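Collaborator request log, item 7. Partner lab (contact: R.S.) asked for a structural prediction of Protein phosphatase 1 regulatory subunit 37 to inform their binding assays.
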Amino acid sequence: MDRPPSRSDDVTVSVSSPLSSCLRKRNSNRQSLSNRSVSFPEDETRIVTGYLEPVNPWIYAESITKEAVLSNYIRSCEKHGVNPVRSVLVQLEGLPYEESNERFDALDLRFETLQLGSCEALEEIFKRVQFEKLNLDNTGLDDEASVALFDMIEYYEAATNINISNNTNIGSRGWQACSRMLKRTKCLEQLECRNTPLDESLIPQLSRALRVGTQLQVLKLEKCCLAGRPIVILAAALKLNTTLKELYLAENEFTSIDAVQLSGLLKCNVTLQLLDLSNNMLEDAGVGHLCGALCEQTRPSGGLAILVLWNNRLRSGSAYHFNKALKTNNTLEMLNVGHNEVRDDFLTGLIEGLTLNRNLLRLGMQSTHLTSAGAITLSQIMNGNPNLQRIDLRDNDLQVAGLAALAVALKSNTSITQLDIDDCPKKSRTQDDTGEEYGALVEEIRNIAKGMNAGTPPMVLRRTWRYVPHSAPSLPGRSR
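Returned to partner:
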């Protein structure tokens, strides 16, 4: 790899006498210390007064042009015996070099096969150009290629957001290099590793960096086979982390046993703001462990703000745990339990918790087998809760009676700004005029919510959207 020489390469150390052991005998310690002396040469010209500045990795980035970046990349490809990546050439052609002195939006390499030589050639780009996002999704990285690439990203601060998803051939050496990159790179804020298996022999490499502290704020480890021993190791490391704000752990086959580790994490870590556990198997028992941790997060200055439990085999029994947490927790702002068969009894069990809670702003209930009875219960909750701003009820069996109750509740509620419901009833049980009546109620509900939205103070709206997750643009109401 063509790398500017490090500062240590220019330092020469001379030894005039053999090194002695630092473990001296106690009886000779004082004698050896008394024989030491410090002297300076009489000729001041012999005193070393010079020094070397540290190497500037971006010396080539001071005045960049499209021609310089392209020609140096092509020349580097020839040197390493590889063909230039066509998509890279196209992207380099289109960069607005004259308009920006900051980072460019992205360098997208997904689905390209990157061997060691191809990665080495990219150094001529990173010497001159920095990016917000570097997409390495499904690029066939192995140990050799990933080590070279991670070292370059670390040295040149190449990107703030890195995606290495679907690279199943990265081994121990590659993850060691990734760990070094995380510890030493000051600009890296997001790392995405979806569908990249991290077994108990690999997860310690990543966990070491997370334990000692990084600049990382978003970590996506979806579908990484973390159930069992790996989540034990990861959770132990994250207990000491004070920078990570968003953690995505969807599709890891977690069960209620794994929820014990996640509960321990939430009890110790009060800087984590978003936890996405979609598409796991936590069930009601696992929710009990998580809610036990939420009950201990009572400080407004820190604690979980968003909890996503989409499709986790939850039933109405989980309402007991959520109700208990909502009565004491004062940090949670968004709860998504969509695509769980919780039914109407779930909302009945939440009446007390949602009535007392003054922090929850968004509730996701999409595809939870609700009927009009559940909508009527929700209307009672809306009458007693002045803080809820958005509720998602899509893909439920709400009929005219349920919508009518919601419309009445909205007229007296002053906080709801968005109520997501289906345009048409899921089932039409009565006569043809039911569809028209249903449509009229949908229009009425949306008009009421729209009026509330227009009158809502901007500060409240900003609080609603403060922690919008990266991987779920429409939360609550996540679809997979």
